[in-house]
Amino acid sequence: MKSTLIRKRSSIALVSLLALAIVALPSAAGAAAGDLDPSFGAGGKVATDFGGSDNGHAVLLQPNGKIIVGGSTSSGGTDFALARYTTGGILDPIFGEDGTVTTDFGGGDSVWGLAFRPEGGIVAAGNTNGGLAVARYRWDGSLDPTFDGDGKSTPALEGLWYDVALQADGRIVIVGCRGCLEGNSDFTVARLNPNGTIDEGFGDQGGRTDTNFGDGDNAFAVAIQDDGRIVVGGWTGETPKGDFALARYNQNGDLDPTFDGDGKVTIDFGGGEHAYAVAIQSDGKIVVAGESRDESGDYDFALARLNTDGSLDTQGLDRYMDAPFGVGGKVTTDFNGGEDEALSVAIEPSGRIVLAGLAEPDPSTHEWDFGLARYNVDGSLDSSFGVGGKVVTSLSSSDDIALGTVVQRDGGIVAAGTAGDGTSTADFALARYLVSPCCSAGGSPPGGPADPGPLP
User: Fold this and answer.
1) What pTM was estimated for this model as a whole?
2) In CATH, which of 2.120.10.30, 1.10.3720.10, 3.40.30.10, 3.40.50.1000 is domain 20-433?
C-alpha cells in the first residue's frame, strides 16, 4: 500500500510494508461534546513510554471500562506491547509490570488486533518475522499457558496480519494480506481453534481462505455478524488507484453468495481509496471507513454504509422516507485541505458513527494530529461535536495518529494510537473526549455505574 500512512512509516515506525483509548466521561459544566476530558490523564491526554519506539495500533474496552492498547515496542528488538489503563487514564498497576506487558516471539513482533474473550482474558494478534503471531493473556497480563502450551501461537500462516475477532464458540478469526511481501496480494482470512491451533476445517486451504479482487488486494479489518458470518474490509488496486473492497464469508470460510451475488463488493469514491475499518450496526447494516484521494491529490476521510445484501445504502434507515446515507451511500470529509485518513470506526448506541484517524490541520507543516469526526445516522456531520462535527487534537510536536477508537457505555469516546515523543521515537498515546451532558465529570450515566464488572 502506498497511501499517506505508508509513505511516512519510517518516521513513526508503523510497519515495514503496510500500514485507536478515549473514554469520555460525561460532560462537566460548560464543556461541549468533543472537548478533551480534563480528568483523564493530563488534560485529557496520556502518553506511555515502554523505553523505545512504541506504536499503539489497536484498542480494546473491557466490560468494566478499563482500556487496553496493543502495538509494538522496539526497546531491544521489536516485541508485542500492551498497556492497560483505568477509566481515569492511569496505568493499571495490577496488569503486568506497572500496567504494561511485552511479549517476544523472536523478532519483528507487533500487535495489530485485540479481542475480548468472554471466558476470560485477551487475545492479541499480529505479526512476527513475516508470519502470524497470536498471544492470549490472563486478566493480570500474564500469558495463558492453556493457549498452545505457553500462551503464544505461531501457526504456519505467512503474510501480514492486521485484525482479529472471536466467534461465539471461541474460535479466532484473523485477516490480512497473503502475497503482499511479493507484490501479488490477496485478501486472506484464517481461523484458529480456541487453543491456538489451526482450524483445518476452515476455508479451502486447511485453515485459510484467499480471495482475489484484482491487483493489490489487502484485508485490514474484520467484524462478525450476529449470525456468525464474517465481514472483511480492505482495498483492491495499487495507489494512486484503488477501491474499498469487502467480502463476506459463511462460518465455514466460503464466500457468501447472498452478499452482492458472489460474496465480494468494491466501492469507488472517484479517487484512490483504502478501507481500514469495518463495523456492524445493530440493524445489520455494514459501515466501512478509510480514505479517498480528492481532486487535489490529498486524502479525505471516506465512509460508506451497505445494506445487508452488500448494496450501498441509498435509502437510509427508512425506505419510505427520503433519508439516504450521504450521497449514494457514501460520505467524504476534508478537515483543512491536507491529508486526512479515517483509520477506525465506532458506532454509538444512538446510531451515530465516530471515525478516528489522522488529520493535517496545517498542510504547510506536513504534520499529523489525531482527527475525529462524528456523523448522524444519515451520514451528515454532527454539528454538536467539536467544530462542525470534527475535532483535531495535537498530542506532540510531531506526528500523532489514532489507529483505534471505542465508545464507552457512558457515551464517551476513546481514541488511541501513536504520538511522537520529541525525538526520533514514539509513544503509545490516548485521548478522551467529553460527550454526554447528562452527568457531572466522573459520574455515572442513567442506567448504572460505569464500572459494572468484577474483572480486574
Assistant:
1) 0.89
2) 2.120.10.30
